[in-house]
What does this fold into?
Amino acid sequence: MKTETIAIHAGNHVDEATRAVIQPIIMSTTFERGEDGGFPAGYIYSRSANPNRHALEHLLAKLEGGVEAASFSSGNAAGMSVFQSLEPGTHIIAPDDMYHGLRNQLKNLFAGILTFDFIDVNDTDVLQQHIKPETGLIWIETPSNPLLKITDIKKVVAIAKAKGIKVLCDNTFATPICQRPLDLGVDIVMHSATKYFGGHSDLMGGALITGETNDWWTKIRQVQEMGGAIPSPMDCYYLVRSIKTLPYRVKGHVQNAQLLAEYLEQYPNVEQVMYPGLSSHPQHEIAKDQMLAFGGMLSFIIKGDENDTHNIINKLKLFIKATSLGGVESLIEHRATVEGPDTKTPRNLLRVSVGLEHIDDLIADMEQALTL
Ligand SMILES: *Cc1c(COP(=O)(O)O)cnc(C)c1O
It folds into this structure.
């Protein structure tokens, strides 16, 4: 079946007990034993499994073309479960512009347990040089945050596979509507469900989706169940509900982002626009090859300094100055401020999560804010 159909049906079924068309929310933390002492419906205790989480995980697996999914209370909890599933001493190769929250997690919580190098994973020579006998995982994130750099997924997978190294792709920016990393050979896909999956800036969640069940996945399942960083039945319900419209929302985000990127690119006071859908993007050809659509995120660098970026943000009326992404409302932020003092992000860069407002209104707002 096609993605639009999966999004609507894979996470929902008519409730047998009540004939309710929408699956009810089961808040119960515990489930009654049968007379034989067993659990007739397969549920025991909600940290292990819950009907709403089960529905969400089934939906996520189908959406990414995987065999199983594990959902978490946030994207960072999903990432942390991956790091906790690795043998102590494992070496991880991660991108130099990895999502800062996960980079900080590795540096602050896993130093001394795991080893890691943050490099340009897209540079084949650099990548080869950093592979060690104990390298167990190459982490990629494409398009990257906030520079919208593209990693050639098939190229990294080929290098990793030759050495028996696993590859994980953070697919948060792209969503399965724009990119399907499992089809390109990646072992596990990671998501912050807080972003496009939730889509309305009102819940937090995370997910891992695997292409096969193996020892590594069993360990991840153990971390999920024993660690307990699971989403509530309520959040699972809201995610299933939101994902029904994900394909259409993402189409709208992509359409608006392309038009806003094209508008910004021709604006005199804009130095550079980073959007993989622009032919000026240095990796536009790779993006065209591996993506189904170019996503709803863009960054741009203005001809000016940090102060000018703050002036622009403050003049905007529709774009809300806030971090995060993937909601229906457009957001803009000065990324270097968010990422802290050790960031390499240019100080005159603004990152935009392009929302679903009418593009004419978005461009008009940008126009009045950019005009000095
Ligand atoms: C937001 C985000 C995360 C972290 O997810 P949370 O839900 O905030 O914990 C990870 N990766 C990317 C690319 C993100 O944008």
The longest strand covers residues 135-141. The longest helix spans residues 246-265.
